[in-house]
Amino acid sequence: MENSLKNKTLRELIDSGEYGVFADYFWSYITEDHLNRPLDSYGFEATEMELGLKRCKELAPDGSKYLNYIYSKQEIYACHELQEAKLFFFPRKEETDITKKTGKAFALVIPGGGFARQWTLIEGFSIAAKLNEMGISAFVMLYRTAQEGVVNKALKDMYRAVSYIFDNADRFDVSDSSFIMGGFSAGATLAGEMASDNLGWKAMGLPKPELIFLGYPAHKMDMFYKIWSEAPAGSPVKSGIGDFLHRLVEGEITMDKVMPYVLEDHLSKEICPPLFITANEDDPTVPFINSKSLYEACLNKKIPVRSKLGRTGGHSYGLGKSLEVDGWLDEAISFWLSITY
């Protein structure tokens, strides 16, 4: 199955009809060039795409019941862009030793994509499938992207997603008090903010996550700002980072506007949940210093933290099979169990 799958394109998967409603969200805001590239060009094996695809196929016959709009029809009618915010529910497959310890605790997973799109298959569905195998129900969150200053809107979507799950805990057969969460790249930017003093769970009146796992998080916005401000006009660096920062803040880009999102400056032992960080030193998209600095900040502030870091493997590796970071999710779950149960 793997050999035939990895040579297929996203377009072929979508057109096959085998994955139902899940296929419409393998990758949000997808363009023609990406539709027609083979899955192998996106790290098919490292990201364990096959695992995610298999789980989507299993759920596809009843797919519509696993797709949830987190805003009401009235809210969406008043603001149409709210329909972009969704939750895919992946129920655990069977009870495991982990389930016996954690009960109905669930996981919320947030894919990345630079706030321009979401790599949902790689950093959402495959992660949820792995969690299901561990005996943990999972939700994959889609949030608003691809507009100026969208990060605050995406944060609101995240807060609403957490509230939505708890409000519907009986329907999903999940806990109404215990959960973990995490994200990747831009999704890790969002998930990380749940740990912060200024934009986190406490400030928003939400339950405290028992663990937050962060895959190659982008949070040193002061560093991105400095690189952008010093880059030559018209250079790829200037335009690329500028596009990212414009999705972070509205209007003129200033240091004052980006500073609230520098996560390590807004952490405290009293509020920050335990963190687990994974990243590679050769990441060409989000500089490794983001993860290294955040880890050291947690140590300095005596915040429980663990990491699984690699020298090579780049960016957007998801589960990271066969890389140095392979097994990071298992270690994150073990960390959670060791300090909570």
Overview of the molecule:
The structure is a single chain. With 341 residues, the protein is an alpha/beta fold. It is built from 15 helices and eight strands. The protein has helices spanning 2-6, 10-16, 32-35, 49-59, 73-78, 97-102, 120-134, 151-167, 169-172, 186-193, 221-230, 236-248, 255-258, 289-300, 328-340, and strands at residues 67-69, 86-90, 106-110, 137-142, 179-184, 212-215, 275-280, 305-310. It has an eight-stranded mixed sheet, with helices on both faces. Helix 14 (289-300) links the parallel strand 7 and strand 8. The longest helix is centred in the middle third of the chain and has 17 residues, at 151-167. The chain starts with a helix and ends with a helix.
Write the layout of secondary structure elements.
Layout: H1 2-6, H2 10-16, H3 32-35, H4 49-59, E1 67-69, H5 73-78, E2 86-90, H6 97-102, E3 106-110, H7 120-134, E4 137-142, H8 151-167, H9 169-172, E5 179-184, H10 186-193, E6 212-215, H11 221-230, H12 236-248, H13 255-258, E7 275-280, H14 289-300, E8 305-310, H15 328-340
Parallel strand pairs: 3-4, 3-5, 5-6, 6-7, 7-8
Antiparallel strand pairs: 1-2, 2-4
